[in-house]
């Protein structure tokens, strides 16, 4: 029986080694695939982002001024990086929020599968899923609804508002509190 147990343990050790080698090979293959995939993407700086978006038919003002860089793959998938979250106003009445990281698919005149951009309308924040260019307008799609805005509203990058912060101002020994954007 001892010899049978010895064989069993030897076989078990060999099987564990095979599994570990297979895992190591699979990890190496994944790393190689990731390296090839990253070679196909284009990582660039912030100044290039504004020029690149214009080559796809969009005005540079569709991007906030806080872009730090982006990756654009050959299939149009992109990741846009900002310094931080950014809130702007469209037509001085619609708050629009950009997350620190925005993803989607870019093609000429179309930004689709967007994640990381919201607009506030009717007291509710809505995810913008698509932005498309239609002649002299930009069409923002939020679910089944859409809103059209003139391209002229996006000539220049908008200014990000300051984050809402509760503050306590001390003036001459007295305290004044308030909320600042």
UniProtKB/TrEMBL annotation:
Instruction: Identify the domain of life.
Output: Eukaryota
**Keywords noted in UniProt:** Signal
Q: Show the InterPro entries listed in the entry.
A: At5g01610-like, DUF538
Q: Which residues form the signal peptide?
A: 1-26
**Statement: the UniProt record of this protein carries the keyword rRNA-binding:** no
Protein name as catalogued = Uncharacterized protein
């Amino acid at each position: 029986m001892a010899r049978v147990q010895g064989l069993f343990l030897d076989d078990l050790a060999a099987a564990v080694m095979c599994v570990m080698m297979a895992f190591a090979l699979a990890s190496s293959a994944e790393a190689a695939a990731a390296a090839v995939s990253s070679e196909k993407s284009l990582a660039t700086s912030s100044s290039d982002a504004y020029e690149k978006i214009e080559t796809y038919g969009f005005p540079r003002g569709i991007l906030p001024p806080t872009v730090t860089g982006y990756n654009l793959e050959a299939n149009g998938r992109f990741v846009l990086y900002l310094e931080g979250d950014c809130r702007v106003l469209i037509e001085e009445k619609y708050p629009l929020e950009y997350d620190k990281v925005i993803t989607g698919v870019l093609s000429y005149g179309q930004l689709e599968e967007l994640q990381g951009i919201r607009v506030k309308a009717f007291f509710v924040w809505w995810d913008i899923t698509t932005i498309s260019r239609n002649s002299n307008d930009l069409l923002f799609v939020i679910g089944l609804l859409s809103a059209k805005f003139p391209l002229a509203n996006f000539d220049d990058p908008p200014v990000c508002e300051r984050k809402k912060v509760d503050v306590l101002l001390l003036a001459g020994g007295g305290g004044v509190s308030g909320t600042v954007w």
